[in-house]
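The instructor's notes for this session suggest beginning with a concrete chain rather than abstract definitions. Hand out the sequence below and ask the class to guess, before any prediction is shown, which regions might be ordered.
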Amino acid sequence: MPTLRSLGSPSSSTEPPAEPGHDTAEAGSAVAVDTPALAGPRPRGTPANPQKYAVIAAPSAIDGLGAFAAEFIPARRKIGEIRGESIPTTEAYARARAAAREGGRIYMIALSERRTLDATAGTDVLRHANHACEPNTVLKVQQGRVAFYALRDIQPGEELTARYGPTHHGGKLVCRCGSPRCIGRL
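After discussion, reveal the predicted structure:
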């Protein structure tokens, strides 16, 4: 099982942030939207939009920004993908340490024991999906691609969450998912 599954969690803090929405957004304001690809041809050389359902990024009660469904998403459907730079896992840990020193955020997912997807510079809204101990989505890593699938029906406005699994935090980051079955730390 991959060992680094951090999507937007604070890279150095072991305490929760002082207030939700501390990233760049004002409380209650959406900052980014990913919508499914529209029907019709796309210009040559333009990559296909990997998002199957509309998702927005907005302040989250869990941590910083979260990814929220902008439309109904049926159970077991692919929601979309996260794209980024494929880097050696050793480089991912170095970048995580640098972000911790600088107080930055990272958005990385282990593809294998040797490769990690760094979506920190990406624009895919799903990179803001927060951890939850009882998530409504599952991350699937297949052939170097990272996709989110709905575990159950998801209503518009509901925050999209995933179980991160092992992270670089090593049990030092307090989990803020609010689930009665919360594991307590990541």
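Then share the key points. Residues 89-102 form the longest helix (14 residues). The mean pLDDT is 79.
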